[in-house]
Amino acid sequence: MKISMYQASVPVFVRMLTNLSAVLDRAAAHAEAKKIDPTVLVNARLYPDMLPLAKQVQIASDNAKGAAARLAGQEPPKYEDTETTFADLKARIQKTISFLSAFKPEQIDGSDEKTVTLQLRGNAVQFTGLAYLMNHATPNFYFHVTTAYDILRHNGVDLGKADYLGTR
Q1: Is residue 3 part of a domain?
Q2: Is 5 among the domain residues?
Q3: pTM of the predicted model as reported, rounded to 2 decimal places
Q4: Dihedrals phi, psi of 6, to nearest 5 degrees
Q5: What's the pLDDT score for residue 74?
Q6: Phi, psi values for residue 124, rounded to 5°
Q7: What is the pLDDT of residue 155?
């Protein structure tokens, strides 16, 4: 049986972005309750050489919309990376979810053997659609969603595994 490239991408990305948005709600509530300037959390990092929370959310968004678009043979939309607040980050997530939700299964299914070419560190790298989704796009997406969660957890936001995985 062949994998449904649509089912392995769009619903997965939408679910995790929805969960990430809820995690940001928890972070905003935490900042308010503890009288922490929210920009401290938005700019927080796990380690000095790692990217801050805002960039983690932006990259997760870029990975999700980029994967769906490329698998459907479209150019991914470009979003400016200007988010500086929880509300901005949530709006970006919602814009990404809306973009993803417009795809139909027939636009993405059957893309498993399609050639996907990415520019990675200045080099053109080619994947089959399945290898791109399973070995690059999805792991990279989860890395940045997880890192965003970890930044907030590390900074005292009361989060647990159920917040990350969601309740659906």
Answers
A1: no
A2: no
A3: 0.96
A4: -65, -50
A5: 96
A6: -75, 125
A7: 97
Are 30 and 129 contacting, i.e. CB atoms less than 8 angstroms apart? no
- With a cut of 90, say whether residue 47 has pLDDT above it: yes
Residue 26 maps to a domain: yes
- Residue 115 domain boundaries: 10-165
DSSP type of residue 126: E
Q: What is the mean pLDDT of the chain?
A: 96
Closest CA to 146 of 46, 39, 74, 47: 46
DSSP string, 111-123: GGGSEEEEEETTE
Dump the DSSP string for 5-60.
Answer: TTTTTHHHHHHHHHHHHHHHHHHHHHHHHTT--HHHHHT--SSTTSPPHHHHHHHH
Check which CATH number belongs to the domain holding 154 and give it.
1.20.120.450
Q: Are 118 and 128 in contact (CB under 8 A)?
A: no
End-to-end CA distance of the chain: 26
Q: Do the beta carbons of residue 61 and residue 93 sit within 8 Å?
A: yes
Cα gap 16→28, rounded to integer Å: 18
pLDDT at 3: 81
Residue 141 and residue 163: Cα distance in Å, rounded?
Answer: 17
Looking at residue 67, what is its pLDDT? 98
- What number of other Cβ atoms are within 10 A of residue 153's Cβ? 17
Helix (H) or strand (E) holding 135: none
- For the chain, what is the domain count? 1
Give the integer Cα–Cα distance in Å for 109 and 105. 6
